[in-house]
Design goal:
alpha+beta; Trna Endonuclease, Chain: A, domain 1; 4-stranded mixed β-sheet; 4 helices
């Protein structure tokens, strides 16, 4: 145990977009911001004990950053009939909002709160 946290491995892909939607690949032949191999790799890693796997998605247009676990992400892309999703689509899957403060140019993220919000029981 370290600072109140059990040993947890975080397998996270970070995606930041200027647009209001994020494209993804349903197969190796597709082209998207989120690649097919990333989805497959995160799904495999999520099967291990004490692993949190998913995407951190930063929508710069709305200034919101979210975490969605890989199982919820797969449910999201399986439900929609398009090759991209927007923030509204994402919000239907109750992603974790990652708090941040804008400094002069960059952001400071509240990682401690994020770790608490994703803590495995």
């Amino acid at each position: 145990m370290f600072n109140g946290f059990t040993s947890t491995f975080y397998a996270i892909e970070l995606k930041s977009v200027q647009t209001s939607s994020i494209s993804f690949e349903r197969s190796k032949e597709d082209k998207g911001v989120i690649h097919h191999y990333q989805i497959e790799s995160l799904k495999k890693l999520s099967n291990y004990h004490n692993v949190v796997a998913g995407f951190v998605l930063d929508f710069r247009a709305s200034d919101n950053t979210y975490f969605i676990d890989i199982d919820s992400f797969i449910s999201l892309i399986n439900k929609i009939n398009k090759k991209s999703f927007n923030e509204k689509d994402l919000l239907e899957y109750s992603p974790i909002i990652i708090d941040k403060q804008k400094k002069k140019v960059n952001y400071k993220y509240n990682i401690e709160k994020f770790l608490q919000d994703t803590r495995l029981n």
